[in-house]
Design goal:
- With 420 residues, the protein is an alpha+beta fold.
- The chain folds into 2 domains: 203 residues, Enolpyruvate transferase domain (UDP-n-acetylglucosamine1-carboxyvinyl-transferase, Chain), CATH 3.65.10.10; 208 residues, UDP-n-acetylglucosamine1-carboxyvinyl-transferase, Chain (Alpha-beta prism), CATH 3.65.10.10.
- The strands form 6 sheets. A 4-stranded mixed beta sheet has the order 21-22-1-23, with helices on one face. Strands 2-14-16-15 form a 4-stranded mixed beta sheet.
- The N and C termini lie close together (6 Å).
- Bound molecules: ligand EPZ.
- Ligand EPZ binds next to helix 1, helix 5, helix 6 and helix 12.
- The site of ligand EPZ has 24 residues, from helix 1, helix 5, helix 6 and helix 12.
């Protein structure tokens, strides 16, 4: 397993281009199952999660071709139920459930395992699909879903932690080929869900209220192929914003959509970081000290849970107390123990992490645990004095495209070391 070796202390300087969004492209690739025509998806990031999804599509009988950062998919016929091992290994694969039901009225998908950040239930997905007329059986670790016909209805999809992103995606992808009108109440408003909806409309779906908590879908008989460019990855962008701020750098992000990460910009400015438009890019600089700031993660357009760990790494540098509250997932503080190995002073009390910042970090060997926790450890290593080894960075490769190359081009002293 590969590791990163990081020699900290170098300020990040220069320009970085943000890749296409992992969390938009996964459901969009799944949506190509809704038609027998060819779909072209552009700005597809080269990530292990994307490679997994493409293998799942092929295991269902689709023809898949990559041409640079464009992927063409043609699911002329859907065979079988997909490769269990592949589906089991990647939670995001649950979003093939909706399109398989929409296209074929049946699906058998392995229950996604929990993961290190929480149990990751799918009760809301199943509630929505059942409301559309699907018969659901959960047995032997599989979800078996069948529907004689899918009939539009009104569905409230809010759960204990608010809306569900992939749950909204699944219901959208089943409803577009259902008979009649479906109203999704408490729909997720994340830009990635809106991007999926725009792709479905390009395929001939009829959807209104895109990006709002109430989305209305009028079913159509069939969908056709489409050509779609994926939105830039706002979480990768926010990761680089935090890294530039942590290293007292001066970085311009290209190819990003600042309107997608308002809450993060607001908190970075509160922390004493300057973020301003620069031509078509977004420039982040930090000259003075980092200031402490409190954050609570919320559904969009609140502070994203996927940026919580990265922002915490930055707050370890801010003299004073920062309280970081995780409201979306039940155990998303795996990075805390590892940040403490680098010298951070953090106490966890239930959903709150109390960060006593200001003490300089010093390099040490640390272990990545989930995708965003790994990013937080890289940020802390870049800011720490001395050398940090981040082990098990396969977690990072799931969601960041050649992160070490992008960081090196910004002046970071980082290299990938092949593991045993
Ligand atoms: C998506 O996961 C993202 N993944 C996650 O990003 C992201 O953290 C999450 O949305 C929240 O924004 C992809 O898009 C591939 P949810 P998803 O359903 O859809 C509870 C990353 O780092 N819930 O919005 O699986 C759930 O337990 C990943 O890129 C139910 O209770 O998340 C959680 O507490 C990590 N019942 C909350 O809702 C359900 O049926 C939000 O989960 C579904 C979810």
């Amino acid at each position: 397993m590969d590791s990163f070796v990081i020699h900290g202390g170098a300020p990040l300087r220069g320009e970085v281009t943000i890749s296409g969004s992992k969390n938009a492209v996964l459901p969009i690739l799944a949506a190509t199952l809704l038609t027998g025509d060819t779909c072209t998806i552009r700005r597809v990031p080269d990530l292990s999660d994307v490679a997994f999804m493409l293998r799942i599509l092929e295991s269902l009988g689709a023809e898949v071709r990559r041409e640079g950062d464009a992927i063409t998919v043609r699911a002329a016929r859907i065979q079988g139920f997909g490769d269990y091992e592949l589906i089991r290994k990647m939670r995001g694969s649950i979003c093939i459930l909706g399109p398989l039901l929409g296209r074929r009225r049946e699906a058998s998908v392995s229950l996604p395992g929990g993961c290190i950040i929480g149990t990751r239930p799918i009760d809301l997905h199943l509630k929505g699909l059942a409301a559309l007329g699907t018969r659901i059986q959960v047995e032997n670790g599989y979800v078996h879903a069948r529907a004689r016909r899918l009939a539009g209805t009104t569905i409230f999809l809010g759960g204990r932690a608010g809306p569900t992103v992939l749950g909204t995606a699944n219901i959208l992808m089943a409803a577009v080929l259902a008979e009649g009108v479906t109203v999704i109440e408490s729909a997720a408003c994340e830009p990635e869900v809106a991007d999926l909806a725009h792709f479905l409309v390009a395929m001939g779906a009829r959807i209104s209220g895109i990006g709002s908590p109430t989305v209305t879908v009028t079913g159509v008989r069939e969908l056709h192929g489409a050509d779609h460019e994926v939105i830039p990855d706002r979480i990768e962008a926010c990761t680089f914003l935090c890294a530039a701020a942590a290293t007292k750098g001066d970085v311009t992000l290209q190819g990003t959509r600042p309107e997608h990460f308002g809450a993060v910009l607001d908190k970075l400015r509160e922390a004493g970081v300057t973020v301003e438009r620069a031509g078509t890019g977004l420039r982040v600089t930090r000259r003075g000290k980092v200031r402490p700031a409190d954050v609570t993660t919320q559904p969009y357009s609140g502070f994203p849970t996927d940026v919580q760990a990265q922002f915490m790494a930055l707050m370890t540098l801010a003299p004073g107390i920062s309280v970081i509250t995780e409201r979306i997932f039940e155990s998303r503080f795996m990075h805390v123990a590892e940040l403490m190995r680098l010298g951070a002073d953090i106490a966890i009390e239930g959903p709150n992490a109390i960060v006593k910042g200001g003490r300089p970090l010093s390099g040490a060997p640390v272990m990545a645990s989930d995708l965003r926790a790994s990013a937080a450890l890289v940020i802390a290593g870049l800011a720490a004095k001395g050398t940090t080894q981040v082990h098990r960075i396969y977690h990072l490769d799931r969601g960041y495209e050649r992160m070490e190359d992008k960081l090196r081009r910004l002046g970071a002293r980082i290299e990938r070391v092949a593991g045993e």
